[in-house]
């Protein structure tokens, strides 16, 4: 019957809630450039993409929150402007009339060390880590992972987590330029300095969260700057220990969707356990006047991403 409540307590085809999405703004007040492989990057324009996104999310009036999948300011931003640029982009996000949840990316860490970055992004942490979770409704839980927990960027020079990452890269990548995948084959090509890993403590925390979500019959959406599935991303962009994280996630049935950024062209896959992996198209790569942002309508059995312009729309149906 039209408009009546179903067994899940939801109205016919009304979403339970919705939220806004954007990734890789990578803004800087510098001339347009290109990625290492020649893809154009529009550093000045990307903040306008964000501004239009915020305007649209606010016009919609119904979005409960916004998620930023990382990389708000580009590493080429002049260092004496890093702090003000990061604040400027965060201020644009904060024009959204609701909470904004940030995921940290490599470019955020090129600009500011963790102890400076996390307070600006309003990520509460006492050990410098940037993973957390939130539950916008009793039925859903969002888990934001810190993909640079073990990473060669962002930690103080002599920090044990940086040392661990440097040692790991020495073992896995023989190139003197640790961002070069030269000679690495297949999935080994992810062992680059602009990627990182989820550390042991974070994995333990994630295990506890997934256990709790299972007990509470919550569906989980994972957010991480670095993609977690090779079929949704180029090999060069993957989390170093994506396999370890996915083995843990696959021990539970509660995770339905994983969202990521970093691989700017975007991607989508459904893994062997029916989990959707959606890598978002970058705001940075939108030629002037074009856009890449979206919003997600959340239903009990699907997430429906409504993309604007260069962001592809994606239906992500799952077994509730
Ligand atoms: N095939 C590659 C790709 C990248 N690099 C290095 O990584 C840096 C970042 O690359 P972008 O995708 O952000 O342009 C780049 O400056 C190179 O140092 C590489 O060596 N080989
Ligand atoms: O956003 P960047 O500059 O770290 O580039 C990421 C790479 O394109 C991932 O393949």
From TrEMBL:
UniProt-listed Enzyme Commission number(s)? 3.6.1.13, 3.6.1.16, 3.6.1.53
Q: Which InterPro entries match?
A: Calcineurin-like_PHP, Metallo-depent_PP-like, MPP_ADPRM
Cofactor (UniProt) = Mg(2+)
The organism's place on the tree of life at top rank: Eukaryota
Instruction: Kindly state which reaction or reactions the protein catalyses.
Output: CDP-glycerol + H2O = sn-glycerol 3-phosphate + CMP + 2 H(+); CDP-choline + H2O = phosphocholine + CMP + 2 H(+); ADP-D-ribose + H2O = D-ribose 5-phosphate + AMP + 2 H(+)
Q: Which CDD domains match?
A: MPP_Nbla03831 (cd07396)
On whether Zinc-finger is a keyword of this UniProt record, the answer is no
Q: Which GO MF terms does the UniProt record name? A: 2',3'-cyclic-nucleotide 2'-phosphodiesterase activity; ADP-ribose diphosphatase activity; CDP-glycerol diphosphatase activity; manganese ion binding
One Pfam family, short name: Metallophos
Output the SUPFAM superfamilies linked to this UniProt entry. Metallo-dependent phosphatases
Residue ranges that the Swiss-Prot or TrEMBL entry lists as coiled coil: none
- What keywords tag this UniProt record? Hydrolase, Metal-binding, Zinc
* Domain called Calcineurin-like phosphoesterase: residue spans: 19-265
* Subunit-structure text: Monomer.
Give the record's family classification: Belongs to the ADPRibase-Mn family.
Q: Any idea what this protein is called? A: Manganese-dependent ADP-ribose/CDP-alcohol diphosphatase
């Amino acid at each position: 019957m039209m408009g009546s409540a179903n067994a899940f307590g939801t109205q016919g085809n009304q979403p339970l809630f919705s939220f806004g999405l954007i990734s890789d703004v990578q803004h800087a007040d510098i001339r347009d450039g290109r990625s290492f492989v020649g893809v154009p990057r529009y550093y000045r324009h990307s903040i306008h993409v964000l501004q239009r996104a915020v305007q649209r999310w606010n016009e919609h009036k119904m979005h409960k929150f916004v998620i930023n999948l990382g990389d708000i300011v580009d590493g080429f931003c002049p260092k004496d402007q890093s702090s003000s640029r990061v604040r400027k982009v965060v201020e644009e996000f904060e024009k959204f009339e609701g909470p904004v949840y940030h995921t940290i990316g490599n470019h955020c860490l090129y600009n500011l060390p963790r102890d400076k970055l996390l307070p600006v992004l309003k990520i509460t942490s006492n050990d410098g880590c940037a993973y957390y979770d939130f539950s916008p409704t009793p039925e859903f839980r969002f888990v934001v992972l810190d993909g640079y927990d073990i990473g060669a960027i962002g930690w103080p020079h002599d920090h044990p987590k940086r040392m661990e990452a440097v040692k790991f890269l020495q073992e896995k990548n023989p190139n003197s330029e640790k961002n070069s995948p030269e000679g690495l084959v297949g999935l080994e090509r992810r062992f680059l300095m602009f990627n990182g890993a989820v550390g042991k403590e974070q994995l333990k925390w994630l295990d506890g969260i997934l256990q709790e979500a299972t007990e509470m019959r919550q569906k989980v959406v994972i957010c991480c700057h670095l993609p977690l599935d090779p079929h949704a991303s180029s090999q060069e962009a993957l989390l170093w220990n994506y396999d370890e994280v996915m083995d843990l996630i696959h021990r539970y049935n509660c995770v339905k969707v994983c969202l990521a950024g970093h691989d700017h062209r975007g991607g989508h896959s459904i893994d062997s356990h029916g989990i959707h992996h959606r890598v978002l198209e970058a705001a940075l790569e939108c030629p002037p006047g074009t856009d890449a942002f979206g919003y997600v309508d959340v239903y009990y059995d699907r997430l429906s991403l409504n993309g604007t312009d260069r962001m592809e729309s994606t239906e992500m149906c799952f077994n509730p």
